[in-house]
Amino acid sequence: MASKKPIFTTYEQKTKDHTFIRFIKPHKTKGKMSLKTIFKTVNDFFTTTIPKSYKKTILVLLWKDLNHPYAGGGIIYAFKQAETWKKKGYRVIFLTPNFKGSKPFEMINNIEVYRVGSKYSSYILFPLWYFFHFRNKIDYIVDIENGIPYFSPLFSRKPKILLVLHIQREILFRELPFYIAWFPYILEIYLMPLVYRKTKIITISNATKNDLMSLGFKEENITISYCGFDSTLSKSRKKTDKPTIFYIGRIEKYKRVDHLIKLFEKLNNPEAELIIGGSGRQIETIKTLTENSKCKNQIKILGRISEEKKFELYGTSWLCVSASAKEGWGMTVIEGNACNTPTLAYNIPGFNESIANGINGILVENDEEFIATMNKILKKEITFGDLPAYAEKYTWENSSLVTLNVMTNGESKK
């Protein structure tokens, strides 16, 4: 006999323009549940109204959200784009996995964020969630790839775009054990081009565009939408009295923050300070490395910091640096430029587009050149022009409108 008691506890959350009803706490039930009860439970798990004031609704499938402790540049990119779409009259919904301490629903920067499943189970649950809750409520899908996309063409015929920040193939074997890395490698290199062969692609650099074309994607289906910067936070500030070097970004193996610390040690400048901001799976390793460094009193590990603090450090630092082995483009370069600070990095795809060598930063080929150039910049033997003026052409609004135009097939311009 089916239980008549409610299977979930419900709560209602109201916002300015719509009401959400979530069923989040399951109850123990006696006996068997009928198929009708099961279906109703699943179907009613999520109810939302869509105000007539919105043009259309965009569903974004993303592997992390902005409040995730390891959120990086790719997450910022997605949310900055969405904020502009919202201002243009579109309703934007993010579907992301849960993380420790997260809520099933949250409003982030006036964007709706729903969390379902875990890092891995989300690949199974997202299609189910779409089928039961979004299939008849959304108009466009933004499928964001981070090694493994969500393969939305397999479960939805809605107009969609695939957003690719950079191809992960060589990074996978640097970050993951071989017995795990081969699986996402095969999905990205072989299955993704097959499933998305007719899908419009948005990427952030020519480097990633070329990588995509090497996988078999057609050039006419790929559009570049560069990163921007937050003009409300960026401004020139008084530089610190002592030379300050700033790294901001994910703390992962491929970012080579450990290598950056070793380069700083070889600088042999007792007056200089290295500030490291950001979080990631290698944060504890970096902390241990710093504790054992001969320059430990000159290195600060801040962990994750706010956007306000980040732009403050951009402005007061003398130089931004990165020893990364792979970049989609280099959003931190333009953010630093907007605050009148140049960037020093290796000459790799991505950085060789965001950095115009000698104009808004310096690209180097090896460690010796990196250390020598860092020393020259701190001694002011190398100077730069109007860096904020250089950054002005890269805005989130311009970037977001490019993406929106491709997604809506020009409809957004009407």
Q: What is the 3D form?
A: globular
Find the structural class using helix and strand composition. Answer: alpha/beta
Strand content: 15-25%
How far is it from the N-terminal to the C-terminal residue, by CA? 56 Å
Kindly report the spatial arrangement of strands forming the biggest sheet: 6-7-5-4-8-9-10-11
Biggest sheet statistics: 8 strands, mixed
Q: Could you tell me the mean pLDDT?
A: 88
Backbone CA Rg:
23 Å
- Helix fraction, binned, reads 25-40%
Describe the protein in words.
With 414 residues, the protein is of the alpha/beta class. It contains 14 helices and 17 strands. The chain has helices at residues 35-43, 73-87, 122-134, 169-175, 178-195, 206-214, 257-267, 283-291, 307-316, 331-338, 351-354, 367-378, 387-391, 396-407, and strands at residues 8-14, 19-26, 46-48, 57-61, 91-96, 105-108, 111-115, 140-145, 160-164, 200-203, 222-224, 244-248, 273-277, 299-303, 319-322, 343-346, 361-364. The strands form 3 sheets. An 8-stranded mixed beta sheet has the order 6-7-5-4-8-9-10-11, with helices on both faces. Helix 2 (73-87) packs across helix 14, helix 4 packs antiparallel against helix 5 and helix 7 crosses helix 12. The termini are far apart. Residues 1-12 and 18-31 have low confidence and may be disordered.
